[in-house]
Amino acid sequence: MLRKLFPHPYLTLLLVVTWMLLVNHLKLGSLVFALILGIIIPIITAPYWPDRPALRNPIAIIGYVLIVLYDIVKSNFIVAGIVLFKPSSQLQSAWVTVPLDLRSPEAITVLAGTITMTPGTLTADMSGDGRALLVHCLHAPDPEEVRDEIKTRYEARLMRIFE
Amino acid sequence: MEQIAEITISVLLVAAGIFGLVGSFGLIKLPDTMTRLHAPTKASTLGVGGVLLASMLYFWIMRGQLSWHEFLITMFILLTAPITANFIAKAHMHRFGDKNTMPDTGTPRDWATFEDESKEMEPVMTRVEPKPKVTASDHQF
């Protein structure tokens, strides 16, 4: 019964929070409407999304978000430094293959997005079987190091959250 | 108090402007499409983020009303910037990508962009069991 009413509890929560932020002030009427939307939309869209991602460790998400935010700020400075002060001829851009231990599509999507937002790396493609990511580095004298950092810093944490 | 807030907001606006400018300058300066992609996806994130933070502070301290719209905009940008970058990268690989310059996948299958579309492949990346194939005889209306 509960499963029928809330096919995606996280989606319901996300819709309610998003609607409340859009309305921009706390009123009971808005909350009721947010709840109506939050219940109806997941039920209508449930057939297109048969599985819901399993979150094993929701608390770890907060830590992950903080690390990524810090890295985004850091990456802004690094990329700005490269753009301003490094001559194009000295730029050593490289392609790196990152083998994946993650299996859930949601987790891989988050990892790919994180790679794009963080220092000097950009996800370009994925292998046909979803077992490896193709990452482009803006300036990487040592591609091995980039790969190891992605695996230890982000993927290990996502493993704890999703799998 | 107002003085400090004004200074903070101004600093944020100027810093954001500088990052936005550097991001745009990177578009001109960097040598090829793939490296050019790095500048707008990153340097401009902080540019937009700084302006939004300044706007939030301004309405909160000067006008006394906390606005959450800026927070939403930041979230949406953080979600969509990687997707745009990925689309541009893939479009670039489709048009000019050379399979031989890319590293090996390390798995039995090739990079998704270079895979042969005409070949029938089993679905991956899904927890749902693949549905039995629909044949012509199944369509009985």
Q: Per the principal axes of the C-alpha atoms, what is the gross shape of chain A?
A: elongated
Distance between the termini of chain A: 26 Å
Oligomeric category:
heterodimer
Counted beta strands of chain B: 0
Query: Gyration radius of chain A, to the nearest Å?
Result: 20 Å
Number of distinct beta strands of chain A: 3
**Hey, which two chains have the biggest interface?**
A-B, 45 and 53 residues
CATH class of the largest domain in chain A: Alpha Beta
* Helix-strand sequence of chain B: HHH
CATH architecture of the largest domain in chain A: 2-Layer Sandwich
Beta-strand proportion of chain B:
under 5%
Helix- and strand-based class of chain B? Answer: mainly alpha
Biggest sheet overview of chain B: none
N- to C-terminal distance of chain B: 75 Å
List keywords for this structure.
heterodimer, A: 163 residues, mainly alpha, Alpha-Beta Plaits, 2 domains, 3-stranded antiparallel sheet, B: mainly alpha
What is the compact description of this entry?
Chain A starts with a helix and ends with a helix. Chain A has about 160 residues and is mainly α.
Question: How would you summarize the topology of this molecule?
Answer:
The complex is a heterodimer of chains A (163) and B (141).
Chain A: H1 2-5, H2 9-23, H3 28-45, H4 59-85, E1 94-99, H5 105-117, E2 121-126, E3 132-137, H6 143-162
Antiparallel strand pairs in A: 1-3, 2-3
Helix pairs in contact in A: 2-3, 4-6, 5-6
Chain B: H1 2-29, H2 33-62, H3 69-96
Describe the model.
The complex is a heterodimer of chains A (163) and B (141). Chain A contains 6 helices and 3 strands. Chain A is mostly helical. Chain A folds into 2 domains: 2-48, no CATH class; 59-162, Alpha-Beta Plaits (2-Layer Sandwich), CATH 3.30.70. Chain A has a 3-stranded antiparallel sheet with strand order 1-3-2, covered by helices on one side. In chain A, a hairpin with a 5-residue loop joins β2 and β3. In chain A, α2 runs antiparallel to α3, α4 runs antiparallel to α6 (143-162) and α5 packs across α6. By secondary structure, chain B is mainly α. Chain B has a domain at 1-95. The longest helix of chain B has 30 residues, at 33-62. Chain B is elongated, with a radius of gyration of 24 Å.
